[in-house]
Amino acid sequence: MTPTETPKDAARRILQPLTAQGYVPAGLYLYQDEDGTEIYWKARLDPPARSDKRKEIRPFHLNGGGYKLGEPQWGDRLKPLYLLPELVKADLATPVWYVEGEKCANTLHRRGLLTTTAGGAQSDERTDYSPLKGRAVILWPDNDQPGLEHMQRVDAKLRALGCRVQTLDIAPLGLPKGGDAVDYVYSHANATAADFAALARPFAPAPPAPAADQADTPVGMYLRNVEVVRGSEVTPEPVSWLWNGWLAAGKVHVLGGAPGTGKTTIGVALAATVTSGGRWPDGTRSPVGNVVIWSGEDDPADTLVPRLIQSGADVSRVYFVDNVREGNERRAFDPASDMEPLRRKLAEIGGIRLLIVDPIVSAIAGDSHKNAEVRRGLQPLADLGASMSCVVLGITHFSKGTSGRDPVERLTGSLAFGAVARVVLVAAKHQEEGEDGRNARILLRAKSNIGPDDGGFEYDLQQAELKAHPGITASCVAWGNPVQGAARDLLATADATSQDGEGGTLADAKDFLAGLLADGPMPSKAIRADADGAGFPWSAIRRAQTALHIEARKQGGNFGGGKQQWVWALPGRTEDAEDAQGERLQVSLSKNAEDAQGAQQKKVGTFSSFSKNEHLQQSAGTVEVEV
User: Fold this and answer.
1) Domain range 241-492, CATH architecture
2) What is the pLDDT of residues 380-397, one digit of tens each?
3) Could you tell me the CA-to-CA distances from 75 to 37, 63, 79, 93, 325 in Å, in that order?
4) Which CATH architecture has domain 500-573?
5) How many Å is the Cα radius of gyration of the chain?
6) Residues 6 or more apart from 23 whose CB is under 8 A from it?
7) What CATH number should be reported for the domain whose range is 91-197?
8) Cα-to-chain-centroid distance, residue 228
9) pTM value?
10) Residue 367 contacts by C-beta under 8 Å, 6 or more apart in sequence?
11) Cβ atoms within 10 Å of 425's Cβ, excluding its own
12) Which residues contact 285 (CB under 8 A, 6 or more apart)?
């Protein structure tokens, strides 16, 4: 039967109640079957200017001689994809751009791309995606949560059809909240099909069709394909550094150390540098970006945010991973199973430069001491960092009883933690006190597959009250001088040792020092020279001094007998210092003879009992005690 009105006339009639309210017709879209036969139409209306109303979509279809509002009765049928006739005629090697909404599909189609859509974000449930079977498909989500969730569902449907699928990373496109392909085209009016194709990653060649003798093989065997890329098709790229030589974009990093070294505070300091565009310890400036933190050990309110504020962070650029919502229920975020929803959320936030996972062992669903399970658990985290081009920093502890071993081997759990990470950093607290009485701390590079793997920086942890929050104190990192050398050597001089489990370095140093002082006190310079000759670091000797309660005293100089020097003696052996060294102690007295005599008597009374060879010599103005 010949229609009594055209589709445009029908649209005017059907849409009249809305246009009377100020709605503006913005598009009329035809859905067809594979042969080009009309099935139904969709009309789009934009809301009245300066109103808070939303756009309206009105479908209508031919019913007898006229058009009727609504979609046809589908029964058991599925809805067709938009622009279906062009889709089925196109070369199978041509990638398909799948977007949300007909307006986006038409906009990209006019730029020479093969496009399709199912309509809005909720239209995928009853859509027939079979015409896309085996094709390469690029999903372009709208920049909002419903759009991202829509593409996730479509992704699953297409992969089940053997499609090669990739979701376009929209974070670098600068889209507004809720923005889509149309917004991008408006801001890139001269973009060509080649420009749009460059936004996506290259697809591997499609797998060959099964041979005739494999016709009886189950179809599912060909829905799973291994993709390979020819080396000549890979363009060399430099490593993209967030902090040159230390933090690489798109790579996994691990920061390990003993308890009390301030690993989390270091992570907070790095986050503060990124959010504020501050300077790294080497003086270079960081690009500004957003940071996401998941912590299973520290509370944001009373620990992490105060530390961020104390470190000078722009806390408006810091996001804490909280809970996961499933339907009407909420549960705790699980790094081992929630990486995909986290990826969608990071894409929604945009501009993520750093993701901190503390502790990284939480990303492992199985046994963290098994190589295969750790690698399997870390791969989603590595993929997330690569897709977002952000630094992934996992924080972990050192295993007990590993002092002296290679730093990477000291990380808690399987060796895979250090193997998967492209850069391993370690933090340590030095046991030798500096001139200011503080124990220096050092951050070191223990491993790097993509840059230098040595050197580091001194740092200190400082506590102070927050100026804007009286009564709240927080720690922050104060960076110090650079240090040179391999991490293993530097850690050997800085490792802390507990009271109940001494490492080999300290135990050996104690034996060495006790043996050295067994025959009597010695000048500290002589001890240091002997220690150097025996291969002991001075810090180990100082720790041994503390452990053995060795006494140190200054002798000589202003008291006579030449130059001052420090002398070390075992506990209770300070009296023997004079016997062993034959030192001469001079005590200045008044030139007044009477005062000199009184001082002499007083001084003699001060010393312990002398041996038979001890005697006093008196000269002008001094009393000399010779031993």
Assistant:
1) 3-Layer(aba) Sandwich (3.40)
2) 899 899 988 999 999 999
3) 19, 16, 10, 33, 34
4) Orthogonal Bundle (1.10)
5) 38
6) 15, 45, 46, 47, 48, 53, 56
7) 3.40.1360.10
8) 29
9) 0.50
10) 373
11) 26
12) 277, 278, 279
